[in-house]
Amino acid sequence: MLLAGCAAAGLSPAPGAPAHLRAAPPAWRTLPAQRALPPIPTQQYLRRDGAQLWFGSIGKGAPVILLHGGLSSSRAWSEQVPALAAAGHRVILMDSRGHGRSSLGDRPLSYELLAADVLAIIDRLQLQRPAIVGWSDGAVTALVLARRHGARLGRVYAFGANMDRRGVRSGAGETPILAAVAPRLVADYRALSQTPDAFPRLSAAVRAMQKAQPDYAPEELGSISVPAVLIAGADHDEFITDDHPAYLAGAIPGAELEMFIAASHFAPWQCPRTVTRSILAFLDKERPSFRMRGRNNPALRRRAASAAVPRQRPCAD
Questions:
Q1: DSSP 103-116
Q2: Residue at 290 is within a domain
Q3: In Å, what is the CA distance from 287 to each residue of 85, 223, 231, 258?
Q4: How high is the mean pLDDT of the chain?
Q5: Angle, CA of 148, 152 and 157, to the nearest 5°
Q6: How many Å apart are CA 66 and CA 244, to the nearest integer?
């Protein structure tokens, strides 16, 4: 059915059409070839709460933790890691519980548990206010961590997050591009995991988590207090509703909003240089030194309202 959906959606040229009339599919319907991660010189495992968590780092400078999406792994960031390290960041990668090299354990998955795993790695590495960059489930985890332990964090960049079920499109699991994405996720899991045939178990655990979570009220999002938050979205996101990024940016005090144009939920693969420039611009730009607290602060309310007007960043890699 997914393969049929790909053809129906225009991912393949019409059979028998003249070559000069066969239009290439738009970039947001394609999935470029996967790039290999550079060698990660420092790799470790942390035993926590019934699971063995893999993490590694490359580069020197201000620390930034990259959190991948559901059913993916640290390999998802292969396009961004070299540029972030070259720009003077210590890039910390991790495989979320059950993903990649990390084991699943016996506890049900939850975003709170995944956030606690990230905090444990921050403690192990003795990081001082690291920046967090998350994609999809990794972005949800980043925002949960920001709400629970904002005082421990630096800037938070969240792409493709939903913080309640209303932010998820109906029929998201049937989007045609999954026909290309799914084999990549399965292949990465088999290549990295110590239980290479257990992908169905992980998939079931992730589906159960996503079906019930997250479920954050606006007031809970309003309690997030970190130096800076950027909510990023894509105008052709297959999973996140059109209005949810602006809702998040408006609910989180002082958050900025940026939208990738002509891109989908897989923008970090589809237009990697554009996404990397966005991340670096956010991590490295000067910010006001003060932090506003309290939802009744008029200046905070003005900043939250203005955040709903997005900056647009065309994907033109």
A1: ---SSPP-HHHHHH
A2: no
A3: 21, 20, 16, 17
A4: 89
A5: 80
A6: 22
Residue 291: inside a domain? no
Enumerate residues 6+ apart whose C-beta is below 8 A from 260.
232, 233, 234, 235, 267, 271, 274, 275, 278, 313, 314, 315
- Domain for residue 294, yes or no? no
Strands of the sheet with 51-58, listed across from one edge = 42-48, 51-58, 89-94, 62-67, 131-135, 156-159, 229-234, 256-261, 311-314
Going by the DSSP 8-state scheme, the letter that residue 129 receives in this structure is S
Q: Collapsing DSSP states into helix, strand and coil, what is residue 235?
A: coil
Of all residues in the chain, what percent carry a pLDDT higher than 90?
81
pLDDT in tens, 122-181: 999 999 999 999 999 999 999 999 999 999 999 999 999 999 999 999 988 888 999 999
What is the residue range of 78's domain? 2-13+23-285+299-314
CATH number at residue 49: 3.40.50.1820
pLDDT, tens digit (0-9, with 9 covering 90-100), for 75-114: 999 999 999 999 999 999 999 999 999 999 999 999 999 9
Q: How confident is the model at residue 294 (pLDDT cuts 50, 70, 90)?
A: very low
**DSSP-assigned beta bridge partners for residue 47:** 52
Residue type, 55: F
Contact call for residues 84 and 59 (beta carbons, < 8 A)? yes
CB 213 within 8 A of CB 143: no
Query: Has residue 293 been placed in a domain?
Result: no
**Cα gap 47→50, rounded to integer Å:** 7
Question: Where would I find the beta strands (DSSP E) of 211-299?
Answer: 229-234, 256-261
- Rounded to whole angstroms, the Cα distance separating 222 from 251 reads 5
